[in-house]
Amino acid sequence: MRPIPSRPRTLLVHKLGRVEYADGLRLMELAAARLRPGDPPGTDHLFLLEHPPVLTLGRGAGTANVLASPAWLEKQGFELHHTDRGGDVTYHGPGQVVGYPVVDLADRPDVRKYVAALEEAMIRACADFGLAAERHPEHRGAWVGTRKIGAVGVHLSRWVTSHGFAFNADPDLAHFQAIVPCGIADPRLGVTSLARELRERGRAAPPLAEVEERLASWLPGLLGRERADAPEPPRTVSVVGLDPAGRVLLLRRAEARGGFWQQVTGRVEPGEGAAGAARRELAEETGAEAAVVALGYEHAFGLEPAVAARLGGALVARESAFAARLPAGFVPRLGEEHVAWGWFAPEEALERLRYAGLRRAVRLAVARGG
After folding, report:
1. Which of 116, 238, 267, 355 has the largest count of CB atoms under 10 Å?
2. pTM of the predicted model, to two decimals?
3. Is the pLDDT score of 3 beyond 60?
């Protein structure tokens, strides 16, 4: 009697929007930690997202391939990160689809085939928009002639993958001038984007969401997975409380709830708007009745286990940031969720915050003065 074939693993597709680079690294760690014990069973993850401008250096990267000075990078708002992925230096930024597959390859332990699948997904996505892309005989990624449209850099630990690919849908190509892309110094080779190639052919560039969808449609099958779409992540808010001296109010969570410092945060309840949730959470967590101001900043991030358990086991949340001006001498009234509080100078507050997205919210609030 022939054995009944096992059902393919599921590739759960998460479309996250903006994710700070450091938060993306932590998200992959959290996903891998759930993947190994099978939570949920037979499920891998594909995170599709955008990063703010960042330069990343792989294991084989040399800083000589970063052409811009540290002062220029800081002025332009670029971050610089060393990573454990393969490859050299690359750029991520708005208009680029970054794909992070967190996949257990134990059923098909072949790194070359895995990398080829990532390249093929980008090549087929180009074809969906009428653009011929291919592999380069010497360099990894997806290419349109002599111009690279998609990069690949991966890391594996016990056959569980992290990092992945970056597909140039419509980024600012001038930003690539800050580096020698992927360490390829050959002047005959360059970088391009889907938008540039289509415009040169007299055609309009597709929306970023459409590009994401084409990549998501191809990759599951190329990896031998069945696609499933992740449910909409829970919506949360953060509120940066500032006093007249420009100090930042932080609260420390109880150990059972993670034990880390943060500004006021909380979930948006069904039927509630983000601003209403921000005002409610500020009152519930500190006793303050104050107006909140939207900072125009939204990001996604991975949930630590203690927090995820209180949000129905969700892996990811999407958060909107607000600020509130609190009176001099304000003393918060803490609930059971927090065990300590303090007013901190901005730089000290930034050092205490775990999530890069929370740190960016603090910077934005301080810059505008609450």
Report:
1. 238
2. 0.93
3. no
